[in-house]
Automatic annotation (TrEMBL):
It comes from Amycolatopsis cihanbeyliensis. It comes from the Bacteria. GO terms for cellular component: plasma membrane. One of its GO terms (molecular function) is oxidoreductase activity. This is Deazaflavin-dependent oxidoreductase (Nitroreductase family). It catalyses: oxidized coenzyme F420-(gamma-L-Glu)(n) + a quinol + H(+) = reduced coenzyme F420-(gamma-L-Glu)(n) + a quinone. Pfam families: F420H2_quin_red. Belongs to the F420H(2)-dependent quinone reductase family.
């Protein structure tokens, strides 16, 4: 998607929006990672990965995105919408636009329909603390960002 979620302007040179070539590379990398997750190998840099299935907010087409996740109790998962710090990632925008059509795939398992809930206030702070305790790199990553990253709890639907 070339649409800048923050300003609504079209991406172009100097706008920070990825070009067609980098989007193509990202799609190829995501597809490769998704294949690994489906074969039961869902780890990257010491973090667990899942496949987040969403629907494009404008296109209505299915989207599959590998995302790091953290446990939040039995059958509940936490994900972070970092998107490089300046704008929300496409998967987050799609998830919030069509929350009733979301599902996840954990390594080697069937898809599970999920209900996303963006955490706020004390709930977010508690979840965020568990995340940075498990992966301190997220605290460093967040400190360099212009905005607070949304934390989303996914629970089975």
């Amino acid at each position: 998607m070339t649409q800048d979620q923050q300003t609504g302007s079209r991406g172009g040179r100097g706008s920070g929006a990825p070009g067609a070539a980098s989007r193509w590379v990202q799609r190829k990398m995501n597809a490769r990672t998704n294949r690994k997750i489906r074969r039961g190998r869902g780890r990257f840099m010491g973090m667990d990965l899942l496949i987040l299935n969403t629907v494009g907010r404008r296109s209505g087409r299915p989207r599959e995105t590998p995302v790091t996740w953290f446990t939040d109790g039995a059958d509940t998962w936490l994900i972070i919408a970092s998107g490089g710090g300046s704008q929300h990632p496409d998967w987050y925008v799609n998830l919030m636009a069509h929350p009733d059509r979301a599902s996840i795939e954990l390594p080697g398992r069937e898809a599970v329909a999920v209900r996303p809930h963006r955490l706020e206030g004390a709930d977010r702070e508690q979840a965020w603390q568990r995340i940075v305790d498990a992966q301190p790199r997220y605290a460093k990553y967040q400190s360099k960002a212009e905005k607070e990253y949304p934390v989303i709890r996914l629970s089975p639907r």
